[in-house]
Specification:
Blueprint (H helix, E strand, L loop, with lengths): L11 H4 L2 E3 L2 E3 L7 H5 L4 H10 L3 E2 H7 L5 H13 L3 E6 L5 E6 L1 H24 L10
Antiparallel strand pairs: 1-2, 3-5, 4-5
């Protein structure tokens, strides 16, 4: 029997806590997306993958400053498992592997833009003397 507090069962009422215009939205309806998006490096990785048609492992590691090979491999596997990234292996010598966002990954990336815009506006209003300009 679960105890109250930390062992509370994650119920539909908790998972589907956002209601707007008579419609209910669940926090994680597809299982795992929110937990993967919340992990360090995931959002920058999705950003870099979406800026290019394809990327090789070393290109991704170099593009996401500070991200190590182990973390990159883990995030790519998680994103593949969720159907957000594809991995294509080419039978060449040496072997070449390329990664790209799937249609779902591209759709998710686009859905993140309004949230990131909101976050940038909030950060600017909290610190108006130090406005953050978008990287170009």
């Amino acid at each position: 029997m679960p105890r109250k507090g930390r062992d509370t069962v994650f119920t539909r009422e908790i998972a589907c806590m956002i209601r707007v215009d008579d419609r209910e939205y669940c926090i994680d309806p597809v299982g795992g997306v929110v937990s993967v998006l919340g992990k360090k490096w995931t959002l920058p990785l999705i950003g870099v993958l979406g800026n290019r048609r394809t990327s090789r492992f070393s290109e991704l590691r170099d593009a996401v400053k500070g991200m190590g090979s182990k973390a990159l491999a883990e995030r790519l596997k998680e994103l593949q498992h969720l159907g957000l990234v594809t991995r294509e292996l080419f039978a060449e010598v040496p072997t070449r592997t390329e990664y790209r966002l799937t249609t779902s990954g591209t759709s998710l990336r686009r859905a993140l833009v309004p949230i990131l815009g909101w976050a940038a506006r909030e950060a600017e209003s909290a610190h108006p003397s130090n406005p953050r300009t978008p990287d170009r």
